[in-house]
């Protein structure tokens, strides 16, 4: 049942190109138009929406953080992303014009379920993004967009995360299409770029041997830090979460711009720091800023592990280890940048003798609050 792999997690990492392709299947056509008729919230209702709130936990929350960038960019609607467990105890301001997006692999996470119940009581419309047919969260939502990752068995989420991202991009683009903002060339271009992602992920997976070797060489370390900016920031958080849960290491993700507000004090000689670098072809200011962040930490002794787009020569002088990923547009980059971090955490867990599929103290579906 593990299909020749030692762990379900390895199998599920390898299934990601297919999971992404399956989640796109039937939802985009050859001309680059989106077909999300399954989202049964009337277009007239979607046109009235004046605010989007995304709620989720754990890895799904990281997907939701990335959704915020995509929704704001493609719809120009204000969007907040919040941990479900914080949202519901805060008396959030919601009404009939609020669209709440609840993201959950299992569809059974209690905090996310309670958040969506609260939102519906306030009159908000709830759209679930879920991987499990007929589970509680989609049953209690106004509409659902299923991710087609297939069953995820390993406790640590991998392929579900990538498909959650795809679903978030589709929703953001669909909202843009329905509301008439940015519809046209840009959406068609992005849809085409999304359809290229399975091939990119396949290529990343073929080049992971150096990442595994690096992970094994760091098995004795206590701490690994992760830095990112913009959508690379949630990717950094996700890389750190994978490492905590699988390798039981102290791992923390930071927004790179926050370094000098505190975290840079943690940098010491030979401390591994993974940096997610945005595409140099995208917003150049983002790229320049992160290159200077890499220089700053390296000058203080950090061992820099740099994830950058193929051909990004600017990072080469400051990288102790380079992990190349295929070129993708800035907003879509998390779909490729996350994959090496999954492999890294899985290999570190193995090297430390941990149980990869069943990390200590964790359950696949968290049905208690
Ligand atoms: C981390 C992980 C968890 C889940 C979280 C939400 O690898 O798997 O953080 O993402 O418990 O679970 P779902 O998506 O089922 O609501």
Automatic annotation (TrEMBL):
Chief place where the protein resides:
cytoplasm
Q: Looking at the keywords, is Iron present?
A: no
Coiled-coil boundaries: none
The organism's taxonomic lineage, starting at the top: Bacteria, Bacillati, Actinomycetota, Actinomycetes, Kitasatosporales
Cite the EC number: 2.6.1.16
Catalytic residues (positions) = 364 (for fru-6p isomerization activity)
Task: List keywords of the entry alphabetically.
Answer: Aminotransferase, Cytoplasm, Glutamine amidotransferase, Repeat, Transferase
Q: Subunit notes for this chain?
A: Homodimer.
Q: What does this protein do?
A: Catalyzes the first step in hexosamine metabolism, converting fructose-6P into glucosamine-6P using glutamine as a nitrogen source.
Enumerate the subcellular locations listed in this protein's record, separating them with semicolons: Cytoplasm
Top-level lineage group = Bacteria
Q: Which residues form the signal peptide?
A: none
Q: Which ranges carry the SIS domain?
A: 41-181, 214-359
List the protein's name.
Glutamine--fructose-6-phosphate aminotransferase [isomerizing]
Provide the gene name from the record: glmS
What terms describe the molecular function in GO for this protein? Answer: glutamine-fructose-6-phosphate transaminase (isomerizing) activity
According to UniProt, the reaction catalysed is:
D-fructose 6-phosphate + L-glutamine = D-glucosamine 6-phosphate + L-glutamate
């Amino acid at each position: 049942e593990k299909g020749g792999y030692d762990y379900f997690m390895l199998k599920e990492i390898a299934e990601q190109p297919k999971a992404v392709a399956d989640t796109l299947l039937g939802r985009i056509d050859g001309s680059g138009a989106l077909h999300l008729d399954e989202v049964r919230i009337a277009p007239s209702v979607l046109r009235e929406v004046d605010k989007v709130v995304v709620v989720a936990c754990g890895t799904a929350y990281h997907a939701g953080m990335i959704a915020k960038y995509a929704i704001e960019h493609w719809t120009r609607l204000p969007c907040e992303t919040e941990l479900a467990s914080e949202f519901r105890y805060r008396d959030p301001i919601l009404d009939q014009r609020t669209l709440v997006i609840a993201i959950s692999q299992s569809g059974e996470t209690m905090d996310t379920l309670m958040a969506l119940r609260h939102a519906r009581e306030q009159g908000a419309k709830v759209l679930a993004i879920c991987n499990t047919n007929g589970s509680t969260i989609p049953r209690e939502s106004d509409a659902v967009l299923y991710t087609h990752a297939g069953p995820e068995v390993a406790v640590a989420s991998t392929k579900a995360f990538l498909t959650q991202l795809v679903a978030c991009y589709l929703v953001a683009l669909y909202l843009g299409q329905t509301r008439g903002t940015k519809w046209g060339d840009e959406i068609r271009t992005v849809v085409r770029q999304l359809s290229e992602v399975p091939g990119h992920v396949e290529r990343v997976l073929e080049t992971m041997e150096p990442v595994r070797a690096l992970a094994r060489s760091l098995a004795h370390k206590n701490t690994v830090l992760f830095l990112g900016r913009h959508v690379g920031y949630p990717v950094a958080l996700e890389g750190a979460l994978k490492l905590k849960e699988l390798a039981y290491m102290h791992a923390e993700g930071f927004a790179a711009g926050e370094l000098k507000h505190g975290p840079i004090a943690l940098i010491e000689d030979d401390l591994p720091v993974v940096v997610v670098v945005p595409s140099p072809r995208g917003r150049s200011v983002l790229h320049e800023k992160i290159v200077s962040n890499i220089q700053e930490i390296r000058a203080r002794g950090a061992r820099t592990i740099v994830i950058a787009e193929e051909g990004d020569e600017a990072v080469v002088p400051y990288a102790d280890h380079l992990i190349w990923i295929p070129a993708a547009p800035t907003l879509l980059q998390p779909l490729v940048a996350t994959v090496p971090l999954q492999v890294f955490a899985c290999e570190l867990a193995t090297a430390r003798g941990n149980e990869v599929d069943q990390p200590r103290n964790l359950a696949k579906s968290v049905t208690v609050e």
